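Below is a complete specimen:
___
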Amino acid sequence: MLPLNPESFRPCAERPVRVVARAMGMPTEISAHHHPWGQAVFSDAGVVQVEMANVAFIVPPQHAVLIPPGTEHSAVLLQDASLFSVYVFLQESGQEARQRFWDRCKVVRASPLLLELVRRLVDEDLPRRDTGRYRALCVVVLAELQDAREVGIGVPMPTERRLRMLCEAFLAEPRQSKPLAQLARDAGASVSTASRLFRDELGMGFQQWRRQALFARALALAAEGMPMQRIAEELGYSSASAFTAMVTKTFGKSPREFLLQRP
């Protein structure tokens, strides 16, 4: 359940890690907000899209997006999901390495150990019942987070209103066959204006941006165990070989080498 008052879960020096479990169904959107503590959003089941001002992350199961303190973010479910929000206190002195790790948004792979520790910390009575065990769990959770492998699946996002609308519409239903003309028209812009905005705002053309968005979605589907043929169909490719060619050309590795690699 989504907490009504996030302030009641504020981490502090005595309780440096707080965890909230959320079972959420579609359609669910979490409006833009920010807070003075770090947050890691884990997907235990289902896919969630987390957006900041200049990047969107499509977070598959067994992954987490790390959100630095003060960063405005919103979220939308792409599937029914089981989520954990991990709130982290980052203001202790002598913790420069930890603060540097949280200096930007990123997606990391969550080890089975990390996921199990996070589940254990959902129990809000634990710090009162067993302070020593709670503190030990916090130490290991923070160490596992900091040691987690980063996954480069961020999709650049613009701030200009029409282009933002265009990009969000594509991410809501990403398909290779969607033409820029249709997306631009729905967002109230001409093709030439949309093309210029992609270059000015994101430093890339629509085709390059679309490949990154499709790849992010493909990674999420692969993490759920979807076969490569099905992923290609889901994203609107004519065949698995066409999808494989796109991934190999863009990222220098085949889908099997990149999408299915494990931590």
Observations:
- Residues 4 and 133 are 28 Å apart (CA to CA).
